[in-house]
């Protein structure tokens, strides 16, 4: 049967057909021929509990019998309200939650929030966005501009707005003449030098804890914390992308608490619903939120919205997902497994040294 589906990041000329998944349970996907495939990438890094988790399916089913979708434009729904409360409880420093449908959109919202914040308080000259080289924040145009990976996005470079890109320390790609520590200091010094000279810097945007799509580059200890301190020192907003690194993916519920770097804006996605329904959230602190308050004719409110913002089905499964984190003490188990895997890696490294 001919397919009319255009697949993502795929050279379609190379493919005559695609494996059709008809069932999924736990870690396994089952195709139309009855073969089992290990879902080794957790369905693009978003599946937390495996497929067909009864609690998550039941949450969707139960909510579907009440409301399937209602607009958040001047209306609300109970699951979305409950989820916002739950997210604020686990997110130090955050004050309000803005919902969207996917990570790229959530990052675009973060950029708009940050830029309009400065406009709302009368600091209209602050319009520049600073970020790290080789970062990734999504595939929409604003996200491509800020998270610019040449191999992915060079065909669109002329259409992207300018950003200030800062080199990032990578243990496996240290420039000649530097030690790993020296290069960390170089990158931090470069950030402070620009902060101190350019009063137009509005925000610093980075993935929290590690660069993922850009090559799984774990930031050195203290690196993100130093950037956070510099942002506070020079009155620059810190925007942290937790989409692929939070909710246990790097070993803690939120990487920004682990990194001791509370942001002005934080962005969640992927694991938010356990990987069952698409949803993302952009959280802002009170300073950001309060700047949008005023009379209607002040035009300070955030001009952004999605049809499926705060979808009650997605919010319901996200709430149940957060309950499961507590029920199964997932973060504690992850930390325990981390130690085990770290010991295995040490044994392997020692064995390789002996072999050499």
Automatic annotation (TrEMBL):
Biological process annotations from GO: biotin biosynthetic process
**Keywords carried by this UniProt record:** Aminotransferase, Pyridoxal phosphate, Transferase
Tell me the superkingdom of the source.
Answer: Archaea
Give the matching InterPro entries: Aminotrans_3, Aminotrans_3_PPA_site, PyrdxlP-dep_Trfase, PyrdxlP-dep_Trfase_major, PyrdxlP-dep_Trfase_small
Give GO terms: molecular function aspect only. Answer: adenosylmethionine-8-amino-7-oxononanoate transaminase activity; pyridoxal phosphate binding
**PROSITE patterns the UniProt entry points to:** AA_TRANSFER_CLASS_3
Q: Which family does it belong to?
A: Belongs to the class-III pyridoxal-phosphate-dependent aminotransferase family.
Protein name per its UniProtKB record: Aminotransferase, class III
- List the source organism: Candidatus Nitrosarchaeum limnium BG20
């Amino acid at each position: 049967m001919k397919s009319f589906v255009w697949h993502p990041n795929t050279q379609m000329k190379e493919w005559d057909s695609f494996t059709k998944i008809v069932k999924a349970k736990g870690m396994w996907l089952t195709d139309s021929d009855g073969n089992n495939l290990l879902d080794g990438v957790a369905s693009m890094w978003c599946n937390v509990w495996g497929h067909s988790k009864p609690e998550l399916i039941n949450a969707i089913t139960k909510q579907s019998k009440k409301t399937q979708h209602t607009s958040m434009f001047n209306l609300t729904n109970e699951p979305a309200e409950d989820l916002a409360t739950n997210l604020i409880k686990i997110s130090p420093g955050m004050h309000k939650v803005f919902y969207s449908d996917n990570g790229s959109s959530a990052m675009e919202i973060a950029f708009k929030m940050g830029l309009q914040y400065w406009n709302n308080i009368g600091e209209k000259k602050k319009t520049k966005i600073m970020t790290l080289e080789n970062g990734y924040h999504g595939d929409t145009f604003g996200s491509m501009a800020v998270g610019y990976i040449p191999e992915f996005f060079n065909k669109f470079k002329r259409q992207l707005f300018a950003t200030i890109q800062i080199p990032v320390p990578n243990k496996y790609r240290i420039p000649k003449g530097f030690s790993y520590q020296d290069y960390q200091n170089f990158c931090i010094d470069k950030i402070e030098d620009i902060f101190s000279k350019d009063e137009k810097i509005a925000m610093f945007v980075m993935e929290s804890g590690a660069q993922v799509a850009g090559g799984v580059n774990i930031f050195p200890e203290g690196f993100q914390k130093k950037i956070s301190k510099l942002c506070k020192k020079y009155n620059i907003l810190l925007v942290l992308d937790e989409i692929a690194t939070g909710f246990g993916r790097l070993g803690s519920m939120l990487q920004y608490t682990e990194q001791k770097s509370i942001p002005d804006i934080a962005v969640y996605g992927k694991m938010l619903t356990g990987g069952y329904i698409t949803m993302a959230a952009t959280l802002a602190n009170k300073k950001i939120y309060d700047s949008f308050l005023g009379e209607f004719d002040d035009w300070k409110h955030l001009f952004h919205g999605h049809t499926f913002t705060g979808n009650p089905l997605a919010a319901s499964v996200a709430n149940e997902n957060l309950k499961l984190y507590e029920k199964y003490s997932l973060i504690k188990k992850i930390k325990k497994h981390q130690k085990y895997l770290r010991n295995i890696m040490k044994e392997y490294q020692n064995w390789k040294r002996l072999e050499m």
